[in-house]
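Sharing a chain and its predicted structure for anyone who wants a worked example. Both blocks are below, sequence first, tokens second.
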Amino acid sequence: MKIGPRFFLSLKDSPQPAILPHAMRIESEIKLDFKDVLIRPKRSTLTSRKKVDLKRAYTFRHSGHTFEGIPIIASNMDSVGTLAMAKSLSTFDALVALHKYYKVEDLAEFFTKNPETLPYTFISTGITDDDYAKLKEALGREELQNIIGICIDVANGYTEAFVDFVCKARDTFPNTTIIAGNVVTGEMVEELILSGADIVKAGIGPGSVCTTRKMTGVGYPQLSAIIECADAAHGLGGHLIGDGGCAIPGDLSKAFGAGADFVMLGGMLAGHEQCEGEIVESNGQKQMVFYGMSSDTAMKKYVGEVADYRASEGRTVSVPYRGDACDTFREILGGLRSSCTYVGARNLKELPKRTTFIRVTQQLNEVFVNS
């Protein structure tokens, strides 16, 4: 049975225009970001952080496949979503969405030597005809048969072409787990799940090297996006990724507390050995380049130039070299366990049920940050 793009069909079939020229409106309800809240502590019977279980078990709506592990995903940015990162994070039973620029032959060669990483690795794709052909080639390779799924990734998940591609991917790969994004509103989460996505990625503009909000004025505060999108996803038996906006371990706790099933990290995993980037020295300090996938740097690297009809929507920065990503990942997991003990959650699944957010004007005392 083919799954159609219900939202766009309803717009086409509507007897009246869905959006009128004078339909500008202002939503006055307050929307919140991670910096706007703290988690209220609650009584707990836990005696140690060691007793907190951070693994989750999910069965996906369309593919029927299951996942059990740490629901944190390294972003499919080319300086984070690497094969080396996949090899390292799989030792934690955590996930990586590989960037889409790997050649199929390179993927096949890697997974022949490291098949144990397959159940924790997504391969990524865009939505062009060439992307579709490459995706079919990749999923047709015997070496990739046990990969967890695919990540259909675009900056703007509100286009008809994107929804059509999700439908096409579901029809072509009925037993494959599909991530689709990015969006930030409940109705589009529902549309993508009904069109074949198992997991929807929420986040427009919150990333550390994303300038979409600056360049377009479009976006949505990430905490509210997660709350609203998770509600929509769970109502249809789907799952949600909170993608972007996490700068410190406590932000992951807020994302999970808000209802995210998975959290995707970019900047927090940048600058590590597994990022496969060039290490340079500046003023006696080792640094690595980190950039958004819509930045000048990325577009010039992969398509040769920034097209004359568009603008860059990403930054290029140098970040301190931080060594092994496993050390940073352990610190992140330690923060999550501690969050759970503060609210009495014995496992990550209980965290949303035990979370009460309180609005704040300041969450950190930064008097010594620059000293």
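Comments welcome. The radius of gyration is 20 Å.
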